[in-house]
Amino acid sequence: MLTTFPRLLLGHAAERPNAPAMREKEYGIWQAHSWGALAVVVEHIACGLHLAGLQRGEHMVVIGANRPRLYATMLAAQSLGAIAVPLYQDAVGAECVFPITNAEVRFAMVEDQEQVDKLLEIREQCPQLAHIVFDDPRGLRNYQEPGLVALDALIAEGQAFAAQQPGFFKAEVDKAQPDDVAAMFFTSGTTGNPKGVVHTHNTLLDRAQAGAEFDKLTADEEVLAYLPPAWIGQNIFSYAQWLCCGYVVNCPENASTVTIDLKEVGPTYYFAPPRVFEGLLTSVMIRMEDAGAIKRNMFHFFMRLAQRVGSDLIDGRQVAAGDRLLYALGKLLVYGPLRNNLGFSRVRVAYTAGEAIGPDLFTFYRSIGVNLKQLYGSTETAVFVCLQPDNQARADTVGVPIKGVQIKVADNGEILVKSAGLLKAYYKNPAATAEVLTADGWYHTSDAGFLDASGHLKIIDRVKDVGRIKGGTNDGAMFAPKYVENKLKFFPHIKEVVAYGDGREKVCVMLNIDFDAVGNWAERRNLPYAGYTDLAQKPEVYQLIKECVEKVNADLSVDTLLAGSQISRFLVLHKELDADDGELTRTNKVRRGFIADKYQPLVDALYSGKAEQFIETVVKFEDGRSGSVSATLKITDTQTFAPVKAAA
Question: pTM of the entire structure?
């Protein structure tokens, strides 16, 4: 697709000016923005930015939630040949210093007062940041900072300029070439400073179009944009594919209304990382535990049926007539109402990505009729590398290479990818670029895996994380921490897991309970508690988690590759892992190495046989203050099982 984002916008505006492009919920009411109206706003913002001095090739930071006028600003910047750089809205000010400095950013577009305050706080460290434009004026009336301007004022100036020079905007759009840089996405920086991943219009649109063709997406799709725009996963679904296909993107009112908005919108095309699907399932299971005995028993009966035949039905395989009849009844009584309650009644295609999803979680959604599939990709590959075809969705693969993708496996098991969607470079980092891009165009993914007999890609773990047990009865056994962590996280009572075992004689884990799920469980048993730390250390909670761990061990015992990864000991952490404390990335991936260093006494206690260990941890509160949390944590041994040999 040899075009650019602004040209696609103008194409939709010319062909169907009155069709809805975006909807935004404000004060509980959905407001529609047509393609024609959006194109006009983009023109006025672009003209306003031009007057303010934004130059072709410059970077412009955009920070905020999914808002039509923030999307319009990205399009406006790209219309002038500038480069959009979305940053995470929940990142603290210090995390913004490196991207802004590295990309020499002079212009920033932010959503509201919170983001303005964040940038003003770091302005001394980023003296080149001359212009800060804000969308929502609430709380900003008396701010007198130089270069701080309301988007409404910028639009008014741009509108006057556009009236004087009506051909300016179109001429600027026409200057852009498909191979011009369009956007830059910063990686999460788990092992140092984040890297700016440079993408052109063509790399992003090529992959967006390939994904759209794969799933036969049309302008009739409805999408809910609720994840951070700085995450390329959200950006590709609600920006690149939106402009390719011309479907409607819906922006929730705020984070707290997302589940309500999901039900109101009823998206046909849905995307979420596993943690979102986990959270939705946890909320369902909590409500079912509170339901009456008749409703609860009916739910469990039909869910057992769904787990047995639901996936076969959605994949078009043969199912006995009696089971078909029972499933139809279950659809009426349980599956249909459940999908409606989750907001998935109209979902035609749902994807999960970002990290591996637990097989039980994956099977649950497919068994109730949600066409949930997995995809494989990364920021550097513009997301779409492998997708699962309809009727070929499996929990243990991430799909087949799609149009324009080549895959090969290196001698060390690393997946190498070649496609038109690969990054142009890491910004100002030729050494890192040379590490991941070969001279003949192959990208090193750092993921270990293989293509199975049916052509589906299987991912085991990160190459650097796949290890071996050393010593003991499982000496030499493969250890894949992410695989173990994901199996535990399927249980609604477990929120996060950090597994260790490489180079050691056994596997031990530290985990977070899900406070809502376990709190509800405790209240139903009249078990009093005073906050997370107290609840996490209850003997009854430890027994609950121990049962979950031992179920995972039983499952692992029948896995010929990973039977040696069974968990020998665990502890429940005294605090929830938090991105603000450096323990998670902004995409909520566990920073295993950082956590091992931070909680070294706990890791040592797990492996030294101790029954408990005192720990005190510094934490950051939402208002920016620091404090500490301390506790004496219990450590529990678990049952492991002899490996089950496969039948001959």
Answer: 0.81
